[in-house]
Batch of 2 targets.
Target 1
Amino acid sequence: MWVKIPQLWLHLQPMTGPRQSPSRKVQSRRFQPPRGTRDFYPADMAVRRYIESVWREVSINHGFEEVDGPTFEHLDLYTHKSGPGIVSELFQVFSGKDEEQIAAIRRGEDAPYALRPEFTPTLARMVAAKAAELPRPIKWFAIPSHFRAERPQRGRLREFMQWNVDFIGSDDSAKADAEVMACAIRAMEKLGLSPSDAWVRISDRRVIQEAFHASRQSCTIDEAFDLLDRRTRLSEHEFLSHANHVGFDVHAFDLQLANFSNATILADRRRIRRPTEVTEQFFSLLDQLESCGVRASCVPDPNIVRGLAYYTGTVFEIIAEGERAIAGGGRYDNLIESFGGPSMPACGFGMGDVVLANILHDKGLLPEEVVMQPLRPHVFVISAGKEEADAELPRLVARLRKAGYHVRHTYRSTRNVGKLLGEAAKCRARLAVILGDELAEGRVVLKDLDAGEQREFPLADLEKELRAALDR
Amino acid sequence: MWVKIPQLWLHLQPMTGPRQSPSRKVQSRRFQPPRGTRDFYPADMAVRRYIESVWREVSINHGFEEVDGPTFEHLDLYTHKSGPGIVSELFQVFSGKDEEQIAAIRRGEDAPYALRPEFTPTLARMVAAKAAELPRPIKWFAIPSHFRAERPQRGRLREFMQWNVDFIGSDDSAKADAEVMACAIRAMEKLGLSPSDAWVRISDRRVIQEAFHASRQSCTIDEAFDLLDRRTRLSEHEFLSHANHVGFDVHAFDLQLANFSNATILADRRRIRRPTEVTEQFFSLLDQLESCGVRASCVPDPNIVRGLAYYTGTVFEIIAEGERAIAGGGRYDNLIESFGGPSMPACGFGMGDVVLANILHDKGLLPEEVVMQPLRPHVFVISAGKEEADAELPRLVARLRKAGYHVRHTYRSTRNVGKLLGEAAKCRARLAVILGDELAEGRVVLKDLDAGEQREFPLADLEKELRAALDR
């Protein structure tokens, strides 16, 4: 509801009253949500909040601080980072009040704003704006809505939540990269996914670049990266045929990478035939992942490139069998500078809720008792029907809510205690307070609905007894 | 970050590597957020989350369940509720990929979607879609972002958070209205606002309608409502001059209302000279507010009308001296039906974060120790500099984070324990673990930074000691 009246239309539109304004009848009409967006009914919302609470808790435990920005930004914030091709992936936004904006769009221009397709440009803008005063390193996370003007498919919607974790301004890139990855991996663990359910493929774009140059290719590095990024999604035949078409010598390239691959998989840096600064740094990253206790979830894999142009070092993806990537990220040391900030090393990842929730659901990792746990009522208050009890009920409910308890009661007319205990159990209440005949002597019954036990005591002791019962 | 590559522009735009792609240099450019939107840096976000957590906790304690819907909806969802005048208050949205949408806008049509200016239409659509299966009453809350294409002013932004609480499908309107209002008032209390800081003006549109008809006015009821709604914002002279202009007899109207006003203010229903069903219902509401223990925050005030066309009974606003309304709501019994659902009584309110945060800030009710409390690190881990301690630190940090603690450590090179204890205090850590010379014997020091005390014990006991120290 708006707190203020839109004055304008008060003058355009007759007002509705229950009888006085026959001029505007209730016109009934059904609506659908926009395609590719979601309605979150209470059970759906409980799942979303459960996932978000794991993301938030893990982020905070790893020392990241939460930030957020506008849901829409100037459209050129996104083209600045990603080039003009991004425009067709965006939902464009304009003010219905601004005649100039409307006229410009009718002339064929893009709208001035776009719904956020990713958080990184907002993050870079925010860091650049306050780079001088922000304490370093900057460790931020955000969990906003994101939007893509794409065709909805499994694992891909037009509006989705995405967890963003970024570590900016630390010169020790191996430590920063490892901490960011450890944060993502801890969230997987906490959600119940084992390293065989979901694992991290890691690489370093510079290793691929070195192999590309050492193998003296006749295609451009962009063509090679584009192909390599699609390697796991193409059949071997398709891949080779595309490679042949652009002039990418797969054999020569793979030979260059083979030493690196073998060495990293065997975790034996002595197997690198021509160690470089880049391969040394990759082994430092593996050492750091070991220190953080997450090395077992990580698989070095030079085939990952992550198409995004701005990655400058480490790249990684979280993968589950047969699904789109759960998360993706890496090091992007040039980005803050490109948004007008100082040169600052940076690393981060994004993890959407759609693929993740599909996987958790398919693996039975969203059981109701876990998802609903924080939403269980502390107490369900029951009146057994005496007038005194009926009068006491709203006062008691208000008193307990004021004391911070989640309190429910029936809205039905029944005073059958058995039926009402059933209603209490159905809404998963932990305790029931029964205002029965004992109320005449100022006493109430407290029933533990999980344990099945009950106790009777003076009404004045209720808060003390509730606390004790909930601590058990 | 996007998890997927925007394939399209990979072909349009050369890729950046640290050395290999001189074709795309870092073009540095600064950006501003859109006017009237906010960047939430960590301190701002802590305030937002604090307010949202109070809203959420109070909602849940009152038995409301959280829901959410899309950030953008079909534009005609909003015109259906509010009439065509709303369009100029909306941010319009279209897909940059959809040629038909773009062509239609260029022809002069509205965009197909709009950013949510209020939650009620989404709520009504969602209730209507599942009315048959949803258990009743339906008690929902939501805390999404909302958007208005208006000029930003104090207390009014183009993007803001709004708490929506709705109670649908209960025939006992006085109880439902009182429970909804009690929920709003409890949130005010919990945020530290007393009834003299912020109070609830309540009325019933039908009382005003009765007074309008009984005073035999020559203007329309819409003209009268429009004027009455602005009464407190106009000077007496302006108000009378406008009234005179449209033919609204203020004296006759006030006389009709005087009995009602006196009776409600004195809480004495016998003072109503001509009691009607409507005035009786209003006293029932006051009784219910009394039962809920929030009557002291409520002031009957027939001058409140709440311009929105869809209110059908109770209307209320939360007011603070010299500010825009903090919240507004009321009963809207026709709305669900107008969105294709069954006829269902309903009542709710919306409370934005902008005016509220201004008031809390001005009254000193956002002290850092309250806002930052949930974000305090449990423990700050310090290495005093021995090689063994430096090696243990990342393992210990990872182990404690995995156990669910919020753990920080320095990213600076200093090993001066005094300086590091200063850093720990600065980030508000509750405890510090010091890996000093004792580590050689497998022992560590735990310092309570609030109490100033410290203990030494075996490293293996750390989790147990941490739990004990945090429980103190």
Note: Chain A has a mean pLDDT of 91.
Target 2
Amino acid sequence: MPSEIPSICALDALRTHRRGAATAEPPDAAALHEVFQNSTINALLEGLYDGSMTFGELRRHGDFGLGTFNALDGEMIALDGEFYQIKADGVVYPVTDHQRTPFATVVFFRPSLGRALDERLSYDELQSRMEGLMEGPNLFYAVRVDGRFAAVTTRSVPRQEKPYPPLAEVAATQAVFELENVDGTLAGFRFPDFARGLNVPGFHLHFLTADRRAGGHVLDLKLERGALAIDATAQFHLELPTDPAFLHADLGHDQSEALDRAERAR
Amino acid sequence: MPSEIPSICALDALRTHRRGAATAEPPDAAALHEVFQNSTINALLEGLYDGSMTFGELRRHGDFGLGTFNALDGEMIALDGEFYQIKADGVVYPVTDHQRTPFATVVFFRPSLGRALDERLSYDELQSRMEGLMEGPNLFYAVRVDGRFAAVTTRSVPRQEKPYPPLAEVAATQAVFELENVDGTLAGFRFPDFARGLNVPGFHLHFLTADRRAGGHVLDLKLERGALAIDATAQFHLELPTDPAFLHADLGHDQSEALDRAERAR
């Protein structure tokens, strides 16, 4: 965990980073406690899969979160500062600082609330339980559940070639994994409805097994028991790509239906 | 202008500020070069007019921008670090650090592009001209026009009492000012369509006369000649209120029509 009072060096690192130079120093993002996001979900839905940020840079903004990879090459989950790539072959790979992401959301996870979950819960029930513990629907929430799952249905998406098809088309070719009786961790976010267009409204969760050998974007689950942690913040930082494909994309129209097909269809 | 390389003290000030303590030091926001926003336009449309941030804090995030005041008491415009309050009586007042705002958008204005505007332009023509100079519709743009105006139609909104009515209702009672043959400054932003729900998509401009005696939220204008400056950034920071009214408000529904009535109707 970064200390609460970052050193002058850490602040220097932030400054250096923001001005574009490479540095290995930790960032000040932990002090900000903001949800940090690279690009927008609308851009991803439109097929903008070129990675605009390195994971070396992304990890300066958070130690927890989810996203995807350059060319849409799988699902990303970050836990405790470790970043994992779950490819469509179902294998979990470590992520190097040189890999790039077209869309990711991270935070330095500092939960303000924890609860033991002692009963079996469906995905809907788990979402309701989490919402019942939140301070209303209008903040940014990072959520983590470590537990035992009777079942988790995950998916991953295969690496794409240009010209990139829209995400809803790719999702039709996704690899689906039915994991049963596994220990593991759910990690993700609940975004407010008014942030539609920027990120997935409502819950968006990824999963990784405790043995770090399987996981993906969560489509469904049955929790047996677990420990829930919720991190609420009122701070959100968005960093947009500046490549021509993003700058001139048509991102303004309502993509709710495409989002549903891309993120929730089995 | 803040220097490009902030001092260690300035960075310390950011840290102190972010951790909640009061400080008179300048912030690091200039180094970040991010558009900073307090609350959301949807919250304002719903009638959430309680100021959630002081202007003392807001000015640490920018020297240029627009917004409104606690209880919706007029229109705010910020130029060169000076903040002005244009009340519904048409008078321009200085803003103190202790006043509060329920919604504001600011940036440390550092234009990357300037153009002389030598011909008469309607409001629509000016918007088209500005869009033609921008790198596509998907970044955050701050825009400033200093010039001579054949006409500027502005409005301001009167201070409200609780229970607060929605903004579209208040706009029906707005004071409209027809300013003719005036020197002055337009200041505001162009937000991407995908940020709908957070801020006004497209252009949102406020106006202040050169003699600092009139202005308001711009409804229409005729430019004679002027100087345009555009500041593009890919960085956006949102800070949400955390009072119960905001936390539990219904902010997710489409408010495009209410927005049009509140921001563009005469």
Note: Chain B touches chain A through 47 residues (CB under 8 Å).
